[in-house]
Write a structure and sequence with these properties.
Layout (H helix, E strand, L loop, with lengths): L20 E6 L10 E3 L3 H9 L6 H15 L6 H11 L5 E5 L5 E3 L3 E7 L7 H4 L1 H4 L3 H24 L16 H11 L13 H5 L6 H11 L14 H12 L1 H8 L6 E2 L5 E2 L6 E3 L5 H13 L7 E3 L3 H4 L9 E7 L22 E4 L5 E4 L12 E5 L2 E2 L5 H8 L21 H7 L4
Parallel strand pairs: 8-9
Antiparallel strand pairs: 1-5, 1-10, 2-4, 3-5, 3-13, 6-7, 11-12, 13-14
Helix pairs in contact: 2-3, 6-12, 10-11
């Protein structure tokens, strides 16, 4: 609760400051951006976990006082200010945060949330919590990239699949327990995703190379019902597919699922494997490789519904705060203040009180200098004086983030998809959420 960069800032403001108003955005990148829009997600988690309720106590004040005295080797910690928070507000923060509803799709360069103090004595609190709030870059980036995957899959499913395959882009499959627990605790979702028994290389090779068939067979014995994922490239993927799955264990598969391997044509004329057999590709998966793989499959006459993709590092680790140019900016005290670096105008900040609206042309835009109409403002008060004022369920967030008919062109490729879709395509997209 006491971040290092902001410890001495209370001494640095000009005299007579009583109000600090700041905002967070994903800036437009100079020279064009890889992603043109973002998915707003994660603020409710941060507010509930770190800011709501009585977050300041006497014990925390004393601990911080001793720590920063040792660290700075001088008295810089604002013990008096924090004790006032404790005495006047019982340790609850006199802060107001207005934000876009979670799950909403917002074009880059627009305000996503604003922060201001509600008591003039605590103007220094607004930017004190910047370090914590700027961590929004991570859930926003992951949600945005995930939705770009969904666009790619939807595009290829539309082109190569029957309507029954549209459920493949729902993204309810996950092996990330931490994410499931977060959805339970902070977004009211008892179970946000599902998985299946899955082998990994260590369990397969523990049988030894000569007993690979027995390793595969054991998985069928251990999990006789429902789907199971079997990693088959520990030694020779071609041999495993042709001689083990396609020969030695073929009868086992037939017994369980009625008929032998083969393929049929879907309503679009593309080849589809039997319903009990699918391919999982989880190596080197990113936005570009998924598009390339599905393009190649399409060229060879195969439907996109034959493949499941697993994405880990590219989605969760190959990103940083500059992926979407996330920034938290102070912009108003008694007069407008702003940043406008001559070396990079794209880092300039907005001016005055902000609101977010959908204009008469249907485009979302930020209104600066306090001239926006309250009834048009998309920003909602979500936090005030230590209390959560607005909550969203994961179901509501998924609804806000669902793909629309004209969303299937991945924004990183800057492609324009025709808006006129035939009835079959519309039927598919109605199920792609």
């Amino acid at each position: 609760m006491f971040p290092l960069p902001q410890i001495t800032h209370y001494k640095q403001y000009p005299p007579n400051v009583s109000k600090v108003y700041s905002y967070f955005e994903c800036r437009r990148k100079k020279g064009g951006a890889q992603f043109n829009e973002i998915v707003f997600f994660g603020l409710q988690y941060l507010l509930k976990k770190y800011l709501s309720g009585r977050v300041i106590t006497e014990e925390k004040i004393q601990e911080a006082k001793v720590f920063y005295q040792m660290h700075f080797r001088q008295t810089v910690f604002d013990e008096e200010g924090w004790r006032k928070v404790l005495e006047k507000y019982d340790g609850r923060l006199p802060i107001r945060i207005k934000a876009v509803p979670e799950g909403k799709i917002i074009p880059r360069g627009n305000v996503l949330f604003t922060v201001e103090n509600t008591d003039p004595d605590f103007f220094w609190l607004t930017n004190y919590i910047e370090t914590m709030l700027v961590q929004m870059w991570y859930p926003i980036s992951v949600a945005t990239i995930s939705r770009e995957f969904k666009k790619i899959l939807a595009k290829h499913l539309k082109a190569t699949s029957g309507s029954g395959a549209a459920h493949l882009v729902n993204f309810y499959s996950t092996d990330t327990v931490a994410g499931l627990l977060m959805a339970q605790r902070y977004y009211g979702c008892p179970m946000a995703g599902f998985s299946m028994p899955a082998a990994e290389h260590s369990t397969i090779i523990s049988w030894g190379r000569s007993r690979e068939k027995e390793a595969f067979e054991s998985l069928l014995d251990q999990f006789p019902t429902g789907p199971v994922s079997v990693v088959s490239d520990s030694y020779d993927i071609f041999k495993a597919c042709r001689h083990i799955w396609g020969d030695k264990l073929k009868e086992r598969v037939i017994k369980i699922l009625e008929e032998c391997f083969g393929c049929s044509l879907n309503s679009q004329g593309f080849k589809v494997l039997p319903s009990y057999l699918r391919i999982i590709q989880g190596d080197g998966i990113d936005l570009n490789s998924v598009d390339e793989i599905l393009e190649k499959l399409s060229d060879e006459g195969w439907s996109a519904e034959n493949v499941f993709f697993g994405c880990g590092s590219a989605l969760l680790q190959k990103l940083n705060r500059d992926t979407l140019n996330c920034a938290f900016k102070w912009m108003r005290t008694k007069m407008d203040v702003y940043k406008q670096p001559v070396t990079d105008p794209s880092k300039g900040s907005k001016r005055g009180l902000l609101s977010l609206r959908r204009n008469s042309d249907g485009f979302i835009e930020t209104v600066e200098r306090g001239v926006g109409k309250p009834e048009e403002d998309m920003l909602v008060i979500v936090f005030e004086n230590g209390s959560i004022m607005q909550e969203y369920t994961l179901e509501e967030i998924r609804k806000n983030a669902r793909l629309q008919e004209d969303d299937v062109a991945p924004s990183q490729h800057n492609q324009d998809e025709p808006k006129s879709l035939d009835l079959h395509q519309k039927h598919i997209m109605n199920r792609v959420h």
